[in-house]
Amino acid sequence: MKKRINVAILGAAGVLGQRFIERLENHPTFEMVALADVMVGKRYEDATKWRLGNRIPSKVKDMKIVAGDSFSKNEIDVVFSALPGGIAGKIELDLAKKGFFIISKASDHRMEEDVPLIIPEVNAEHLSLIEEQRKKRGWDGAIVTDPNCSTTIMAVSLKPLWDNFGIERVAVSTMQSISGAGYPGVQSLDIFENVIPYIAGEEEKMIIETKKLFGDAKRPADLRVSASCSRVGTIDGHLEVVFVETSKKADPDEARKAFEQLKGLDYPSAPKEPIIVRDELDRPQTRLDRDAGDGMSVVLGRIRKDEALGLTYVVLGHNTIRGGAGGAILVGELCHGKGYI
Amino acid sequence: MKKRINVAILGAAGVLGQRFIERLENHPTFEMVALADVMVGKRYEDATKWRLGNRIPSKVKDMKIVAGDSFSKNEIDVVFSALPGGIAGKIELDLAKKGFFIISKASDHRMEEDVPLIIPEVNAEHLSLIEEQRKKRGWDGAIVTDPNCSTTIMAVSLKPLWDNFGIERVAVSTMQSISGAGYPGVQSLDIFENVIPYIAGEEEKMIIETKKLFGDAKRPADLRVSASCSRVGTIDGHLEVVFVETSKKADPDEARKAFEQLKGLDYPSAPKEPIIVRDELDRPQTRLDRDAGDGMSVVLGRIRKDEALGLTYVVLGHNTIRGGAGGAILVGELCHGKGYI
Amino acid sequence: MKKRINVAILGAAGVLGQRFIERLENHPTFEMVALADVMVGKRYEDATKWRLGNRIPSKVKDMKIVAGDSFSKNEIDVVFSALPGGIAGKIELDLAKKGFFIISKASDHRMEEDVPLIIPEVNAEHLSLIEEQRKKRGWDGAIVTDPNCSTTIMAVSLKPLWDNFGIERVAVSTMQSISGAGYPGVQSLDIFENVIPYIAGEEEKMIIETKKLFGDAKRPADLRVSASCSRVGTIDGHLEVVFVETSKKADPDEARKAFEQLKGLDYPSAPKEPIIVRDELDRPQTRLDRDAGDGMSVVLGRIRKDEALGLTYVVLGHNTIRGGAGGAILVGELCHGKGYI
Amino acid sequence: MKKRINVAILGAAGVLGQRFIERLENHPTFEMVALADVMVGKRYEDATKWRLGNRIPSKVKDMKIVAGDSFSKNEIDVVFSALPGGIAGKIELDLAKKGFFIISKASDHRMEEDVPLIIPEVNAEHLSLIEEQRKKRGWDGAIVTDPNCSTTIMAVSLKPLWDNFGIERVAVSTMQSISGAGYPGVQSLDIFENVIPYIAGEEEKMIIETKKLFGDAKRPADLRVSASCSRVGTIDGHLEVVFVETSKKADPDEARKAFEQLKGLDYPSAPKEPIIVRDELDRPQTRLDRDAGDGMSVVLGRIRKDEALGLTYVVLGHNTIRGGAGGAILVGELCHGKGYI
């Protein structure tokens, strides 16, 4: 296992790219060696408008933006893709063909049969698809994906229920932050003092990705999922109200115990507690809880009996950390730990 | 049927009381003759801080605040109660005993067996409980209630489903505005850039009131309801995501037709269209749609098939108009139209 | 004087264009006969996303979008321009050459020497520049402008001080709403829970336009103006803190009297009180006061003595009504009343 | 000089008290040994609702709340007072009489002639008043104060201008966050989508405190200050637009240089750069810049020439850190460094 892994970031100047940089700045294993985006040749500081606080990290300030297709296998071990869906697909494919190991936040390849869709605490075993992918596609590279932010947050919370009780049906209503739409994303005139009960493509992703995560690597799990996704006026953090029917009856106390027992993994970005259960009546709250576990825990509360489906709870996660750059980096750490990198 | 009805408002200086005044200012039938609140003797303008726009209506500016227990039967035909739950109960009881006809927004008497809980478009026939109430309690007065704001908005939308398909189960996730908490209500430090996934007492009300509304006057309806109520950063308007299992299968088109066919009533405050269906993907929206039908219509959209329960949609209503003063005034108009007043 | 005036709107599908339509829908004199924008041939409803409430006015829903250069002098008496600065200049010029009477909200021609920049309550007499403009430019048409929204709101408040005491220096700090930036305007990620202390071009406009307004038609007034413009998280309404040094000493009571005595004009869009003075310590407030006088009054408060310049007050106006479509329509009414149209 | 200083916090359960705890949790010199508030005997965790993030610091969680009048001189070296103005005065006086060294954020004693009002980078030399205070009052204790949050932020920015050019007049317009009002503070219904152009007492404080800070210890400085304070919808951070007339002309470049040259002090809480100058047109911004220098720097931008007073700029600081607990702790560090503690 290599000690230091050289990584490149695709889409480094976007909001998601900035989160990758922020989380990789002092990473013990991954070393940022290349930042790719469209403004090739510019200093990073001149190519982006830093939105994550007072000042751009000094480490990347003077790095020159490069083109993704100029990456050299000698210099780069892993490519994190923060590209938008639609654009990401082809670029990732070209790099994988050249032998690069891609970990992508984009949705383009997620649902392909031989592409692992991974949340380390949920379905690490799906990584075995990599071998099949390489054989089938005839390449040395790899494309590994992690799910949509809303899916990730819910799936982490469903994992202990799935393992302990089985799941028949899930109905979820999300309240998602504006940072989920990237930049430029939601116009202020649209979302100020408002709720928009629709996010394009989000509900479909929550439905199909959840089934892939809980299936075996190749067949979606047999559960029924319904999602209704809303945008609300918060900056970061997606809060989700989950109604769930378990196969074996789960009363709130049993569910609570199961949630708390979900094990944290032993990787740098893995939170000690993947699920933090709060017993106060009014938690989790978006602003107060999104940074729990350095943004990598989901915070869960209001576990209660439910007349309609049996069990209800509320779960919150940081969409651009756990559901974004942090989640993808954790997938990278898992791939490294398991010897794929 | 009297042409002009003299009305009094209990709790006239609160936010809900202000809404009553705003909606009664130019009412064709109801004439405000008494404003009751704690600061007895003060001019209304000095007793309240007007929050509904630039200036306090000139009609009430100089009216003197009176005490509720000083009401005279000669002067007052109907009493609208905008008192907070907990305080309202005894005061309303005392007035009913004295023979006053009370229409109350407070929750205190809502669930009593002989007290009608009315949404005119949903269960006007429950008004017949008034006779039973009078007989049983031995008074000439009456206490009539209307439901909690969140219940009202959902129940209007459920009515056509109930009538056309029957309802087995409902799971609802609400996103409610800060005005729902009254004044002083939610602290800005608590709700700014935040979602609070809990509103005390709200979920229980949605569950039990819905069953009473769709039951016959004395027995709750046999349906399963689950509610999860969240406070979001909007000023007015409650948006609700509803997952519903109908008894007879209802596909989205059939449901849409049923929603649109719910008839408007012929009262001054009744909206022509109790339910306005919007076909755009991203409607209803809180800020854009809460004032539809002068705040008395609910706006409904995103009707779609649902894997978990069968049917999903989003409904929005104005919490302090349809779900507040406007709804109660409409109940008053119904009582008047039906000869109870 | 013609009884009915046919008007066209340039930029009808933008946010400002929508405000024009909203304010002209039931106008007693001006009849909308043409809506111009880029999506020529489309029904208005399909060419725009209506942002001013629940539904698009039925009057314009089915009107077909036309091209500005297809306007016919037989059909159109007045053209209101809601075009963005930069684009407006040439289009307005071409139409004026063809003989159209243009009233423009765009900044392009505002500072030209022979173009009147008008606030009816402030400098109606500057309209006389029209004759000079026609002579000089050799056309029958006309270009009349009204100032930037922030300038308008401040200038209305300065008018009584200018007339009664003279003004030496003004320092103004504005807190402007997001609707001032049009649509798409400010990204929500930029302005949520934030203040941005800069609005491109705004400060320069406040400085030079104020001098033109208070000058004689051809020479800027001799006063010193300093402006610092900030964007805050409100939807509509610009609030301005004004520090002013008058030539003749004005104590707060005298200033108050002068503010209140500014006369309203006798036109359909003219507010009875151009300046509404509020004596409460905490008024004007953006959300509560922006709609005063149907959005055409400015609301002024907190008049007090000031150690630095002598007099301080706070003034608020509706940026897209008084400072936008409403202001321009009032200019149109003035032009009509004075016989220019 | 003692290595470890035992400190107590008065008003430990309030929002400001929480900030003290957050900033003292890992302090190299100050050790929290007593938390005083009204709920005497309760565990700290049960006595407060923690508002500064996910979880209450483990160090204080189980500490028992004590009464301020039970403090023992053997155990406590310094008392930080986070009490509200009005309540603080007498309690602080009683403790000073008993010999305690008080550093107070409350306004009650700020303007007393023998009480130092200190910003370490601005007027550290005023600490010498302590001796006079002790002599005059006949006590061994001391009361040292630091200014109101808005004053502090402005005064840090004025310091280099005062030293290099002299100051004749200042007009300041502030845009202050809701956390400035404490908890419970501003109601959400009051401030949502709104600006309130008034904060009780704030303007007077800015005027008189600024003069005391730049005076010699006993006489206010001779400069004219005018302030207009507004509440806007941000959580933390006060942004201030400053118009200033210097005695000696200061062009923007000279001012910029002076701002940057203000020296940081060598104390644990002292920011390396007390003033961070940003050259981007649109900085400082409240959300992006309030945490600069760990919340202890002020961020300054938009330095420009001004027609009215000569020089204008925008300055931002964190109101509950630099202008709150952080500022008071820095005063404590200064007192310790200078041997007063």
Structural descriptors:
homotetramer, Dihydrodipicolinate Reductase, domain 2, six-stranded mixed beta sheet, six-stranded parallel beta sheet, Rossmann fold, 30% helix, alpha/beta, globular
Description:
The structure is a homotetramer of 341-residue chains. Chain A has 341 residues and is an alpha/beta fold. Chain A has two domains: 5-146 and 324-337, NAD(P)-binding Rossmann-like Domain (Rossmann fold, 3-Layer(aba) Sandwich), CATH 3.40.50.720; 149-317, Dihydrodipicolinate Reductase, domain 2 (2-Layer Sandwich). Chain A contains twelve helices and twelve strands. Chain A has helices at 15-24, 44-47, 58-61, 88-97, 120-123, 129-137, 149-164, 188-191, 202-214, 252-261, 286-289, 325-337; strands spanning 5-10, 30-36, 65-66, 78-81, 101-104, 142-145, 167-176, 224-231, 238-246, 275-278, 298-306, 310-317. In chain A, the strands form two sheets. In chain A, strands 3-2-1-4-5-6 form a six-stranded parallel sheet, sandwiched between helices. In chain A, strands 8-7-9-12-11-10 form a six-stranded mixed sheet, covered by helices on one side. The longest helix of chain A has 16 residues, at 149-164. The first copy, chain A, is globular and about 60 Å long. In chain A, 61% of the residues are buried. The model of chain A has no long low-confidence stretch (mean pLDDT 96).
